[in-house]
């Protein structure tokens, strides 16, 4: 039996939502009747087809804004677009992300700048633009998609780990600052999710190591995750819906793990 989170008519912006986790979260919101602004890069025809498909099978209006997450003015315009389209903004999900893996002494300067901009700085810029709208409404929900890497580290991912730790710290600071405004700010910290990017990594690692894909999953990808099981999209969606509904009104400033006990070990 489906849970009604009483979100119909609310409005959400979900960054990085043209594929993977972001698209799954945007879809889950639309299924609850939330009008959604999608954002992200990709093939324009596929983005439009996905937008139409989500809208057609839900009771929600779905729009798209192509803001580049490295450009503050475009991020601000995306928030203004949501307000202009729907008259309000109830939910902001800061999900956009990129990855690059290399030793710290070999890490390209431009890749450091890109990761910090897309993961951390865009979270600040979108939040800065959204908060005045939410303050005027007396209610808002900001959910930042961090990572287990916002709490613990892995080698060769220094900028990603730094950015995700920054997202967690930013979340806590904003939650304290906004505690009496009706706006909650939380972070979801997933373990490994079987996104298209991870699926391609499994294939590549299997070929490189000469082992079966199943061994790559258990011994390489999920080596740090005690349950040896990928996090499913619906597990993240369930937590998101709780946080953005009235049920989550007292949850703020939290970094909630969905990581198969990775950060507990």
TrEMBL record:
Q: Which family does it belong to?
A: Belongs to the short-chain dehydrogenases/reductases (SDR) family.
Bilayer-spanning residue ranges: none
Record Pfam families: adh_short
User: For this protein, what is the EC number?
Assistant: 1.1.1.175
Q: What is this protein called?
A: D-xylose 1-dehydrogenase
Enumerate the InterPro entries for this protein. 3-OHbutyrate_DH (IPR011294), NAD(P)-bd_dom_sf (IPR036291), SDR (IPR050259), SDR_fam (IPR002347)
Q: What class of enzyme is it?
A: oxidoreductase
Gene Ontology molecular-function annotations: 3-hydroxybutyrate dehydrogenase activity; D-xylose 1-dehydrogenase (NAD+) activity
């Amino acid at each position: 039996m489906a849970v009604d989170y009483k979100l119909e008519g609310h409005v959400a912006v979900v960054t990085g939502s043209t594929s993977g986790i972001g698209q799954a979260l945007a879809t889950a919101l639309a299924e609850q009747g939330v009008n959604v602004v999608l954002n992200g890069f990709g093939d324009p025809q596929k983005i439009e087809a996905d937008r139409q498909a989500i809208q057609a099978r839900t009771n929600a209006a779905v729009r798209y804004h192509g803001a580049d997450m490295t450009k503050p003015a475009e991020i601000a315009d995306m928030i203004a677009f949501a307000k202009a389209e729907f008259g309000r903004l109830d939910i902001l999900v800061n999900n956009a992300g990129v990855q690059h893996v290399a030793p710290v002494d070999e890490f390209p300067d431009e890749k450091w700048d890109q990761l910090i901009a897309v993961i951390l700085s865009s979270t600040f810029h979108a939040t800065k633009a959204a908060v005045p709208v939410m303050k005027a409404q007396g209610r808002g929900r900001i959910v930042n998609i961090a990572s287990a890497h916002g709490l613990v580290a892995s080698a060769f991912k220094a900028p990603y780990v730094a950015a995700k730790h920054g997202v967690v710290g930013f979340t806590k600071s904003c939650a304290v600052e906004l505690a009496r405004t009706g706006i909650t700010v939380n972070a979801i910290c997933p373990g490994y999710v079987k996104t298209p990017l991870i699926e391609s990594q499994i294939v590549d690692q299997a070929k490189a190591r000469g082992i079966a894909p199943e061994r790559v999953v258990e011994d390489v990808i999920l080596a740090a995750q005690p349950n040896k099981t990928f996090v499913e999209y619906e597990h993240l969606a369930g937590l998101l819906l709780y946080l953005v509904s009235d049920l989550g009104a007292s949850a703020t400033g939290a970094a909630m793990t969905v990581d198969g006990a990775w950060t507990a070990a």
